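ligand=pyridoxal-5'-phosphate
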Amino acid sequence: MSFDFDHIIDRKPTHSFKWDKYQGQDVIPMWVADAEFKPPQAVIDAIKERTEHGILGYTLPYDELNQSVVDWVAKQHNWHILPDWIVWTPGVVPAFNVACKAYCEPGDKVLIQVPNYPPLLKAPSLNQCERVDIPSVLIDGRWQLDLVELEKQAADPKCKLFIMCNPMNPCGSVMTEQELKQVAEICLRHNVLLCSDEIHCDLILEEGVKHIPAPALPEIEGRAISLMAPSKTFNIAGLGASFAIIPDSRVRMQFRNAALGIVPWVQVLGLVATEAAFNHGHDWHKALIEYLRQNRDYLYQEINSLKGMKLTKADATFLAWIDCSELGVEDVQSFFENAGVGPSPGRDFGEPEYARINFACSRTQLIEAVERIKKAHAQLSL
Ligand SMILES: Cc1ncc(COP(=O)(O)O)c(C=O)c1O
């Protein structure tokens, strides 16, 4: 079956967050992590069918929906969960903020891997907690969590929670089983709850790399939660549907209680879209991964051919984390924007010398962006 990821859809008239930023400017937006692709037809059809029914009242997550999650997670990650473990949330951002409320008291410390997705960096302070940064280090061409620092910081009895991002945004690594086991041991040794943001886990591009959901490790099943969603993979982020998977009933109850009265239910179209994506999106998903892999490889080659720019090949995600520290420009973001390309500013992730380019777009758009970057690069005196 073939799917047309080359097809260009004009999003300018849709109040798109990504496209509105550079309205009226000749800048290709390649920042916010949504894609330029239409979801699988089954997803569009499910939404159409539900809206044509006409009544869009309060809707509870239903058995067939939870089963679609159980089946998807089993097929993709060989993790056999129970439907009861699933707690629906209208986004992963609310979920990791709920985790801070659920497992910490004001004044406690929350460990956060850096660099990281900006709302994740803000979660501790939004919940009256102190953020403790655990760096990611580049070893032999691969971004890895600094486990020595994790052990050191987790030993502080004020540390109650570690929110990690696996696969890593923005660095793109997927933790190995050995790394994950070490993280689990550290968390268990110091009684730190492990909250793993796994929103990018269905975007594994590197062949042979496997994502392991944190609570799938038996040793930490009772002290870990996984946050997942169909939103990045199937490009339905605007529908606000995601879920936490929490095997331990007490940990789950704490999470549910912290969300009460603040976090709304997932809206009906998000639920039906998720069910359709997980039940009928397998072929589309396979084709997407192949397309993204080629985009990644093309970008990797082109960016690394430019003096002063370095790009590590990401195992997963559609995000390229580009080191521009040797580019010799005063402001990395301005360099790209003046070139006519709008990445996410590295400074928002904690690293001003970097830029993050979202390559979930047509090859035509990606080539145009690369040509613009090359042209601006040629003007630099390096
Ligand atoms: C690591 C990570 N977590 C969460 C989100 C967003 O979550 P949501 O839109 O479901 O709140 C993103 C979006 O880019 C992300 O990269």
